[in-house]
């Protein structure tokens, strides 16, 4: 359909009226008079709202203005005056008008969700200008639709197996995109805002490490606290490597323009992927928000509930109103529980991940032990060497004389080691490096052998087969 400018619509309002209504039903922008958006109270209302929400509200609010017959400033001034009134009817003037507007919408609009969208827009105008205290005093029943309720077909929420199938048919960028939405629960709008520099450990994290993140949702400004799984990080790294591993900029871009990928671009890319994998009929059922639904379903399957689930979904924690802090480690532990329910690319076995992590930890512990042992040996060597040097210096004992004194001590120490029960079955020394027989060793070699024995080194690491045989015969 060819896009029409505002002048064309103004010139022929009757001819194009039906067409513009049809466009509105498809979620496309409608050309209306939005001069009221310059009103200071509307400007205050729009502060902090994302672009899509502003566009929807500015279109929906026009119908409220036409219904109530007052501009935004007149409404705010009247509301301020009525809050000080003792007349209950005056104080609830806008609440009653809101209910009348609801009845009007239900008589003219077709769907419950459409009606709620308009009502939410009006409630938002008052609450964001006055706060909760002087916003519209509505009760839960006010939001309940009086329209006939019809059975609604269940949305298609892709299962873990179906997302694995989608993953196998996706190109590199779409793999990263699919997993980002599915593993984090972020919306398309939040995903388009992701930057390389916002994930500080993107290029440096371990291969099996999830990266914790916090982000305020674009739509609601509620805090999301979750993790980028190591599968997501792996695919993002692969995608960025094709772009030369940039250090900053948006993560997801349009390859033809190199500009940030839009929410529409994400929707088109994933719908095409679903059509390619499951066919056109399934693609008609699919919406990108269903990946967020799948993430929510995985949280429930993982047993993650309460405040932690609210944080991981980016929902408001009722009753707390942001007064309480939380520990990121709790989010990381919860994500470890969630991951087996969302993993798709071959490392989903929880057993394999645990084994890998345990092996890594054991290796680190062994390295630490070896460092400690090496330090102890070096210290003891230094002490023994110092003692021998002092003995030679203070008593004039030569190296040859000292070696002669040490020979019988060495023989006795070797016999004791040979006759130890734990050593009688030890044959590891048979492949040890050969050391010359004591009688054939130099004085320096004898002193070094004594030092090793004194340190408690095992016989298999210092004794040669020849030496062992001679000692064995003498012990018998």
Describe the secondary structure blueprint for this structure.
Blueprint: H1 6-11, H2 13-25, H3 40-46, H4 51-68, H5 72-82, H6 88-91, H7 93-108, H8 112-130, H9 160-169, H10 172-184, H11 188-192, E1 211-216, E2 223-228, H12 230-241, H13 263-278, H14 280-285, H15 289-301, H16 306-313, H17 328-338, H18 350-395, H19 399-419, H20 443-455, H21 465-475
Antiparallel strand pairs: 1-2
Helix pairs in contact: 3-8, 4-8, 7-8, 9-10, 10-12, 10-15, 19-20, 19-21
Describe this structure in words.
The chain is an all-alpha fold and 476 residues long. It has four domains: 32-143, no CATH class; 160-347, hpI Integrase, Chain A; 349-397; 398-476, no CATH class. The protein has helices at 6-11, 13-25, 40-46, 51-68, 72-82, 88-91, 93-108, 112-130, 160-169, 172-184, 188-192, 230-241, 263-278, 280-285, 289-301, 306-313, 328-338, 350-395, 399-419, 443-455, 465-475; strands at 211-216, 223-228. Strands 1-2 form a two-stranded antiparallel sheet. Helix 4 packs across helix 8, helix 7 packs antiparallel against helix 8 and helix 19 (399-419) crosses helix 21.
In short:
Helices cover 59% and strands 3% of the residues.
Name the shape in a single word: elongated
Range of helix content: 55-70%
Strand content: under 5%
Q: What is Rg?
A: 38 Å
Q: Unreliable segments (pLDDT under 50, ≥5 consecutive)?
A: 1-31, 421-436
How many domains comprise the coordinates? 4
The CATH top-level class label of the largest domain: Mainly Alpha
- Could you give the distance between the termini? 106 Å
CATH topology call of the largest domain: hpI Integrase, Chain A
The overall pLDDT average reads: 78
Instruction: Give me the CATH architecture of the largest domain, please.
Output: Orthogonal Bundle
Number of strands: 2
What is the strand arrangement across the widest sheet? 1-2
Q: Which structural class best describes the helix and strand composition?
A: mainly alpha
Query: Which series of helices and strands comes N to C?
Result: HHHHHHHHHHHEEHHHHHHHHHH
Secondary structure tally, helices:
21
Q: Biggest sheet, open or closed, and with what strands and sense?
A: 2 strands, antiparallel
The CATH homologous superfamily of the largest domain is named Intergrase catalytic core
